[in-house]
Amino acid sequence: MITVEGKAKINLTLDVLGKRPDGYHEVAMVMQSVALHDTIEMEKTEDAIQLSISVPWLRADEGNLAWRAADLMRRTYQLDGGVRMHLTKRIPVAAGLAGGSADAAAVLRGMNELYGLGLPCRTLCDLGASLGSDIPFCLMEGTMLATGRGEILKRLEDMPLTWLVLAKPRLSVSTAWAYQNYDAQGAAVHPDNQRICEEIARGDRKAIAGLLCNVLESVTIKKYEVISRYKAMMLEQGAMASMMSGSGPTVFGLTESRERAERIAGVLRQNTDADIFVTHTTGKLTND
Ligand SMILES: C[C@](O)(CO)[C@H](O)COP(=O)(O)OP(=O)(O)OC[C@H]1O[C@@H](n2ccc(N)nc2=O)[C@H](O)[C@@H]1O
Ligand SMILES: Nc1ncnc2c1ncn2[C@@H]1O[C@H](COP(=O)(O)OP(=O)(O)OP(=O)(O)O)[C@@H](O)[C@H]1O
């Protein structure tokens, strides 16, 4: 039996450059992995794919991205067996943190290892991209500039280790809905991706914090005002900067220390009904 991990991500920036003929949007965004992760135990079976999950409310059948990733590997490489998996879910679902993508990435890695396929990361990324735009990033981890529909990745220097607070309101946002509504309203402010990449290369945490920008934020805030409230609370409590991740609704606040992150988390836990996590940024996984 092996145990694999899938880490959550946050978007330091997210820009939408236009709508494509295939229905996806052309994006340019800086993505960052964080330590909050799901764990999947995996062992070979004769032929079935079996999935159990630590929470009852998430489907454990062929609709689950972990299941679909295992099935994709089995079909693509005509494997002569299946896999039994147990998923310990910690990353909030439909939260803008790529939880499902993280699980799929972990299973792709796990099947590669269990079946001794020896596939390089870039092959797993190509396969992963067919299941979801965020999956290639979840395979690479660290700090990346993502373009195309999010699957074209350029490795950046790892962002300097930064503690952060995550606040997940008790609501879920559909990614497709957020992109669709963006088309109707656009955004007044766009991220400066070139500058943030330069500041990441310099390792200037404060400058990075000053450049956070996500064009989907105003779309989701329009429907769920609570997001602005959590942002304001984090800033009042001394976060360097605060922003919604991905299509939301999770809000993250970057902080100067673990102590500050814990303090902000304490205030949010007392004054809101959001799910609150304290975590930190993590670096690259492979030497691609
Ligand atoms: C919001 C982000 O999480 C930011 O990192 C990603 O762009 C979304 O990545 P994801 O959840 O892996 O998205 P996918 O599963 O590939 O797509 C879900 C839906 O989101 C919309 N979508 C997604 C990515 C993209 N570049 N343009 C889109 O319009 C499409 O309607 C698509 O059907
Ligand atoms: N293993 C999984 N974990 C979480 N959600 C899953 C999983 N498999 C399928 N899903 C479905 O995928 C949808 C999106 O969940 P996910 O947690 O990946 O969203 P997200 O954090 O908003 O992702 P992103 O940031 O990539 O847009 C949910 O509606 C959920 O039912």
Automatic annotation (TrEMBL):
Keyword Plastid: no
Active site: K9, D134
BP GO terms, sorted: isopentenyl diphosphate biosynthetic process, methylerythritol 4-phosphate pathway; terpenoid biosynthetic process
Record carries keyword Chaperone: no
Catalytic activity field: 4-CDP-2-C-methyl-D-erythritol + ATP = 4-CDP-2-C-methyl-D-erythritol 2-phosphate + ADP + H(+)
Pathway as given in its UniProt record: Isoprenoid biosynthesis; isopentenyl diphosphate biosynthesis via DXP pathway; isopentenyl diphosphate from 1-deoxy-D-xylulose 5-phosphate: step 3/6
Membrane-spanning segments: none
Domain of life: Bacteria
One term of GO molecular function: 4-(cytidine 5'-diphospho)-2-C-methyl-D-erythritol kinase activity
EC code: 2.7.1.148
Gene3D superfamilies assigned: 3.30.230.10, GHMP kinase, C-terminal domain (3.30.70.890)
Domain GHMP kinase C-terminal per the UniProt entry, residue ranges: 198-270
SUPFAM superfamilies, sorted: GHMP Kinase, C-terminal domain, Ribosomal protein S5 domain 2-like
Span of domain GHMP kinase N-terminal: 64-142
Residues annotated to bind ATP: P92, V93, A94, A95, G96, L97, A98, G99, G100, S101, A102
Keywords carried by this UniProt record: ATP-binding, Isoprene biosynthesis, Kinase, Nucleotide-binding, Transferase
Pfam family, one: GHMP_kinases_C
InterPro entries per UniProt: GHMP_kinase_C_dom, GHMP_kinase_C_sf, GHMP_kinase_N_dom, IspE, Ribosomal_Su5_D2-typ_SF, Ribsml_uS5_D2-typ_fold_subgr
PANTHER family in the cross-refs: 4-DIPHOSPHOCYTIDYL-2-C-METHYL-D-ERYTHRITOL KINASE, CHLOROPLASTIC
Purpose: Catalyzes the phosphorylation of the position 2 hydroxy group of 4-diphosphocytidyl-2C-methyl-D-erythritol.
Family: Belongs to the GHMP kinase family. IspE subfamily.
The protein, known as: 4-diphosphocytidyl-2-C-methyl-D-erythritol kinase
Taxonomic source organism: Selenomonas montiformis
Gene that produces this protein: ispE
